[in-house]
Specification:
Blueprint lengths: L4 H12 L3 E5 L3 E5 L2 H7 L3 H9 L8 E5 L9 E2 L5 H13 L2 E6 L8 E16 L4 E10 L5 E2 L2 H5 L4 E2 L6 E3 L6 H18 L3 H22 L5 H15 L2 E15 H9 L5
Parallel strand pairs: 3-4, 5-11, 6-10
Antiparallel strand pairs: 1-2, 2-3, 5-9, 6-7, 6-11, 7-8
InterPro entries: YqhG
Protein name: YqhG family protein
Length: about 270
Amino acid sequence: MTLNPYFDFVHQFFTSYGCAILEKSESHLRVQLTSSMDEEIMNRPFYWHYMTKMNRPGDPMQLLFTNTSHSKEGGIYLHAGTPKLHTIYGAAIKKGKTARLYEAVEQPLQNRALCPWLVVNIHLHYRGKQSKDETLSLGLNLVHGTLLPNMMERLWKMEFEPTVSDYTFPMTPLINLENAYKRIERYVEGYVSSISHDWATRSLKHLQEEKDLLESFYSSEDIGLEQFTKEQEQIDTRYSPRILMEALNGGLFYISQKSNSYVIKNLAAD
């Protein structure tokens, strides 16, 4: 639509969540917000609280985005530092936490079943003397329980839609989501247990060295008890080795039997 990449992102975001595009050109984009989108990004909590209390529908706002800061129509100049753009980024991340998607299948000769997978992208935060992060993308088949790593890479080239293609139907999961997620958690725990813990050993050694040094200052009365206690807590926080697990996002992906066989066969590649 325009050379401004943020226009395309904003256009796709709002249309994906049911907001009407009233006007669009290379220089501007006018959007009619839905009530829910207005509540989420326009920071009018008192207005919407009043509308709800009065049992009235409310009047969602319109937004005008422009490609320049000198637009005669005013509006929001859309660039990397636009505050409203960052608000929209936050909403996109929040809404993107979960998804339910179906593989796009060309019209088959007969009805085809789509197999459900729970896919969870997990961030591991390693904290200690040195910090690092690692992302795991795990998929669990909700029919036969196969668990695969690098799941998003396996799904990357497939096309998905928010609705089921004609002549296809989603299979009923045999493993419920709670048990499936627990299996994924156990896999992550096993993975963490299997990797080298040299980094934790080094962190513990450095932690003890820092505590010994602090003890020497306290023993020589260079610092008082209050400061000693405070700095000891800071040392523990900074150097105690730990691994934090954060579920970034996830969803249910329904894929065809052909694609199902493909992703499982590629297990050997890992």
